[in-house]
From TrEMBL:
Annotated protein name in UniProt: Transporter
Family to which the UniProt record says this protein belongs: Belongs to the sodium:neurotransmitter symporter (SNF) (TC 2.A.22) family.
SUPFAM superfamilies: SNF-like
Subcellular location as annotated: Membrane
Organism in which the protein naturally occurs: Bacteroides oleiciplenus YIT 12058
Keywords assigned by UniProt, alphabetized: Membrane, Symport, Transmembrane, Transmembrane helix, Transport
Length: 456
């Protein structure tokens, strides 16, 4: 594609919804609650919020301006803005991270399809918490069913990617995102009203600072990057389809606020309910899949029809939230192959889909028959999650902030952030200060501390 015939998002709302669609997904509803549960609750959430505000929003503006200015895929963007330098490796690392995340993320996205099936056939009715745990464990560790769902999910992503940016990505986000918000708010209200839910609220609101260590910081930072789709060029790729009048700072704030709001709502749904029925908050990746069926059955125990309708709607919307995120990861890798290797979009997309299917199947099997094969003590699924969320994304964020803060000509930064001087930019100096000093130092310190070199 030449510079001028690149696709664009059609409207401002479309820009925000598509970017928020990438950000809001399993990271908020599945990963945020279990990371919060594993790392002690409220203190983790406060550190997470600080990471979103201090690191997330400035790095998001950075990705936006790099993408819109270069109007290229993420590796191509660095090539254009810093020709002949090693900066292109930042883009390439992002593409690799996107590919790896898409592989294991699709496994969980596939689980949501199984749960749609369970909800539609009313299989949750009349069961206890122990039954839900048993059902989930035997499903997720079985060989065939999760693999079939994962393949179907990747095919759905593939289909939308091949249809193109505006028709596929923007349209689906516009309809489904508002529906998801409304349902989450209703479910949070239901969960809080369950008997014994107070302990869950306390877990969410009362920080226990003595449990905080370097790992909690690294996990909160990783979660912020993962949830905001940062550090791997995803929002950079989306911004390459933004129009010249899109307000980058405002979009970054809107996306981050929406994303954080959904994560907190997910916490407000999961923890009150988990404490109410006696499920441990540190149950790990299975947490939402064993807690939510309880919310539906208990909160609406007198009105089974409502329990049925809400559970079907919830899993459908969860699958859609996952889909708008898998589309964005797929787009990063597809745009890269399409533009850098001159493959047709269709062929590029097929390579990505095929590759992710292969790795995704291995990840899925690593939770069942392959659970004894571990690397650094982690099965493949957990290894992919660890390497991407806790290493590659923060490292990508570190490089992006140094690139914009120190390397990139400030005239370009100013032009993009102020839309060629047409916008009043209140936070410009703060933005540059954070990108130059705060973000690189904070991310490096967290890495170094986690590696054990720093005793604070
Ligand atoms: N932000 C997505 C979520 O929270 O589910 C996951 C994700 C999408 C991560 C795109 C990274 C990415 F580039």
């Amino acid at each position: 594609m030449t510079k001028n015939d690149r696709a664009n998002f059609g409207s401002k709302l479309g820009v925000i919804l598509a970017s928020a669609g990438s950000a809001v997904g399993l990271g908020n509803i599945w990963r945020f609650p279990y990371e919060t549960g594993n790392h002690g609750g409220a203190a983790f959430i406060l550190i997470y919020l600080a990471c979103v505000l201090i690191l997330g929003i400035p790095i998001m503006v950075s990705e936006f301006l790099i993408g819109r200015h270069s109007r290229a895929n993420t590796a191509g963007a660095y090539q254009k803005l810093a020709p002949g330098t090693h900066w292109r490796w930042v883009g390439r690392m992002g593409v690799l991270a996107g590919f790896l995340i898409l592989s294991y993320y699709s496994v969980v996205a596939g689980w949501t399809l199984e749960f749609i099936g369970e909800a539609v056939t009313d299989n949750f009715a009349g069961k206890t918490a122990a039954d839900y745990i048993q059902t989930f464990d035997s499903f997720s560790s079985s060989s065939w069913r999760p693999v079939i769902w994962l393949i179907l999910f990747l095919l759905a992503t593939h289909f939308i990617i091949v249809k193109g940016v505006e028709k596929g990505i923007e349209k689906s986000a516009k309809i489904m995102m508002p529906m998801l918000f409304i349902l989450l708010i209703i479910l949070a209200a239901c969960s809080i009203s369950l008997p014994g839910s107070g302990a869950g609220l306390e877990f969410l609101l009362k920080p226990e600072w003595d449990k905080v260590n370097a790992n909690v910081f690294l996990s909160a930072m990783g979660q912020a990057f993962f949830s905001l789709s940062l550090g791997m060029g995803c929002l950079c790729t989306y911004a390459s389809y933004f129009k010249k009048d899109t307000n980058l700072t405002k979009t970054a704030f809107s996306v981050s606020i929406i994303d954080t709001f959904v994560a907190i709502l997910a916490g407000l749904i999961i923890f009150p309910a988990a404490f109410s029925v006696g499920i441990q908050p540190d149950a790990g990746p299975s947490l939402i899949f064993i807690t939510l069926p309880n919310v539906f059955q208990q909160a609406f125990s007198g009105i089974p029809l409502l329990a049925y309708i809400f559970s079907v709607m919830f899993y459908v919307l969860l699958a859609v939230a996952a889909l708008t995120s898998t589309i964005s990861m797929h787009e990063v890798v597809t745009a890269y192959l399409h533009e850098e290797f001159h493959l047709s979009r269709k062929r590029a997309a097929s390579i990505v889909t095929g590759g992710c299917m292969f790795l995704g199947i291995l990840c899925s099997l690593s939770l069942g028959v392959g659970r004894d094969y571990t690397i650094f003590g982690l099965n493949l699924f957990n290894l992919f999650d660890f390497v991407t969320a806790k290493i590659m994304l923060p490292l990508g964020g570190l490089c992006i902030s140094i690139f914009t803060g120190w390397y990139l000509n400030k005239k370009i930064v100013w032009e993009e952030v102020s839309n060629n001087g047409t916008l009043k930019v209140t936070f410009y100096k703060v933005l540059i200060f954070i990108l130059k000093f705060i973000a690189p130092i904070a991310i490096s310190l967290i890495f170094i501390k986690e590696l054990g070199f720093l005793k604070l």
